[in-house]
């Protein structure tokens, strides 16, 4: 028997229960992996609290992990027992010592990346790849707003946007977090508890606003992000750590011909070739400009 954390009702952390579970053998197109590290993300909090009702209860949460292949089902190519792999999945099941995993979402890990690093940055790195290369399409000379720039995704996003030649304006809740954001590549940091974000953005950009605003906070920051956009600017809302955003009237976007996107990473990695391309990009970035996260 293996161990897994099971939720049988929505609520606080106290509803997470460690239980014995039967894993079984991998079927067609599947791997059985022994997990060594698990990623913990805001998505998991949303599922546990009931904000996202996308996991059938009782169920095992967790969408990201790293492990070692212990058994291989039929019609699986490219893997051998002992391979180290990482993954993200919308099928959940990550909070477990062993699991069955679809082989087409497993990605081999190079020896240069340890298990803990992979589990802490894989989903975040793929998210940032999606944001800067597919959704936001950062260009040299762009001015970019990153809400919660001292967070995990915020740090990576600030690093990569800065590397691509953008001027990054970050927001943070304290002087300590502001320093983290600066080290991650922010040219300017707005202390959102003391300043009005949109007003500060306009002052920094000489009244123009930003080309792209990246907002993972949601309810508390959405209005400020929208008001920070330049003419034809683009707002990317990719999370809701403060709660879901209220419905938006389309006429709000017409004021400056702005646009709004709410991307989901699983849609951008649903095809194997896109997942492979995103992973290759992340691996190349790790080789040229190593990921550094301050916790």
TrEMBL record:
Coiled coil: none annotated. PROSITE patterns: QOR_ZETA_CRYSTAL. This is Quinone oxidoreductase. Gene3D superfamilies: Medium-chain alcohol dehydrogenases, catalytic domain, NAD(P)-binding Rossmann-like Domain. PANTHER family: QUINONE OXIDOREDUCTASE PIG3-RELATED, QUINONE OXIDOREDUCTASE-RELATED. Pfam families: ADH_N, ADH_zinc_N. Keywords: NADP, Oxidoreductase. It comes from the Bacteria. Residues 11-293 form the Enoyl reductase (ER) domain. The keyword Membrane does not apply. SMART domains: PKS_ER. It comes from Variovorax humicola. InterPro entries: ADH-like_C, ADH-like_N, ER, GroES-like_sf, NAD(P)-bd_dom_sf, QOR-like, Quin_OxRdtase/zeta-crystal_CS.
